[in-house]
Amino acid sequence: MSMFEHATAVADSRHRAFFDRAGEVRQVWAQRTDGTWFYLADGGVDDQVRADAHAGELSCPYPGCPDRRFVAKGGTERRHHFAHQVAGPGHRASSAWRHQALLMLADWSHRRYPDLEVELDDREDNESLRLRSPSSGKLVWLTVTYDPRYQLPAPAPGAQLLVGHSPRLLLPDEEAEGAPGLWWCRQGRLVGDLVADRGWALAINPQERLIATVTTGDLARAARVVQGRHGSVLLCAVAELEHARLDADGLHTPVSDAVDRELERRRAAELERRRVAEAEQERRRREAQARVQAIQTTEHQPELAPTAHSPSDLRPPARSAVPNALSDNDPKWPTDLDGLRRLLDDEDLARRLEQPLGTDVACDVEPAIWHLMAVLEWRKRGGDAHPMAVRAAIVMNRCGYSLTGDAIAAVLALARTHQ
Q1: Per residue in 239-252, pLDDT tens?
Q2: Distance between CA 353 and CA 377 in Å, rounded?
Q3: Model pLDDT for residues 30-42, shown as the tens digit of each residue
């Protein structure tokens, strides 16, 4: 199910017009005499609105306007809007859009979160909306730009930049097939920087009271916002402002929440991958360290005759400590691995002895057989360390066994009973 199939994000024909009127600066927001704001919906001009505008109950909200008196414009050819009673120099398009966008956000914040302190900073060079929670004291600053050359400021807690609905910023290509309100867009510098920083960006249309979430096509598909693919890098998902929410980090939409969940899933998967890799690296390091220690001990530790009560010895017992059961004159004495396999009637012995130490440490092979193999290799090579002896010593250390003559004699006796 796509995001726009949910009841909280129902798309309609206005979503398709998100970019259509971006070039038309129509003032649709007015200020009431009590300081609150009034939004004029398309087709909303009636006798009451005309009378309120004519009486000065609805006036231009733009800061520094020399003549704030409005007249309401209706008709069927253009969108219903307000115009000044006395024509003047007019307001710059980008400034007018930006101010109306902040008015829209201020009006929405006041209605959605009535306990919030809402303050509009209408300075021309740094216009922004300040929202403060009286209970926690946390602040959120919302800034809007229609300027493609805008340079991102350094990140600050609670500060969020939104872009306007200008095609120069969003670079729309075409509407996603079968998905009203979803647009494939090329990547511009400013929007691309915002998406790279957070995974998504927000764009707003104050004329239609719409908000759009811009994210990568890859994230949009993973978050189940869209199913198809397109040559464009970004997807722009248009929705109603009424379905947005506010927290200490700024504005969020249903689509941005879905993208955040996907990003969190990816972060968790990456952390798990690193944890497994680090654990494997540590296991290999410890294993290599144990091999080195075993070899060093075999080369430098004095030879001690094994006893039933002595601690684990990393070297096989001296020749004099080998029980009589290992006499060279014994015809049943095995001299190599094949001989031991025949003696024990175990065709699978070689495979188990040659498995990695991770399996060896699980003691799949009888420990006494390891001890015996260590003695055999030691005798064959005149006391020099051999890889089989080193492996046997590592297993003895990890499994807690001691290399004793009694253990060797016991395994030989057990083997002979199987003949």
Answers
A1: 999 999 999 999 99
A2: 14
A3: 999 998 889 998 8
